[in-house]
Amino acid sequence: MTEPARVRTYNARRGRLSPLTQSRLEELVPRHGIPDGPLEPEVAFGRRAPVVLDIGCGHGAAAIGYAVAHPGHDVLAVDVHSPGVARMLAAADARGLRNLWAHIGDAVALLEKRVASRSLHAVHLFFPDPWPKTRHLKRRFVSEHTLDLIADRLARGGELLVATDHASYATHALDELRAHPAFEVEEVSRPEWRPRDGFEAKGLAAGRAVTDLRAVLR
Predict the structure, then answer these.
(1) Which are the contacts of 78, defined by CB distance < 8 A and separation ≥ 6?
(2) What is the mean pLDDT of residues 62-71?
């Protein structure tokens, strides 16, 4: 029996890559990318250290901020948008970061097929697509299926951090997390290491409040 197609949680963006983006990807992905197949942190990152998965990293400001503040951790930043990943890697390389890694692709597929159970220290989901239209609500990343995946991949005591500047998404995420038996969730202050950049800056400029949630694996 064929499994039903999985609902895509991101908005695909297509277009030609600029020469700058192409050259950055060619130079930096071999240096900061992960090997094909199951993710083995000691092989991929060259050491045994806590691994943090940053989902939908965009231009990577939060991933870079965390990597700078936590040199003893390895950050794997994932996004489907190649130009954003290229820009992040260029910024990380300019700062000499050696604990920031990248994967261009679907984070759900990565979690499903390549990340082992109990292998992640934390998962970060900052300013995901809010999918505000009613017909698109099923595309929101925070859902029973993705929370099941994250709960299995987190190590005991691991945490999921969520930030959004859309009130409806904050309510949705809080409801989903409260309903999930694996997590204890609370609203928290913004982490000091996360810069006010990208979508966060745009939300604040538009007068929207930012909600930060912390869900700890029971």
Answers:
(1) 53, 54, 55, 56, 57, 102, 103, 104, 105, 107, 110
(2) 98
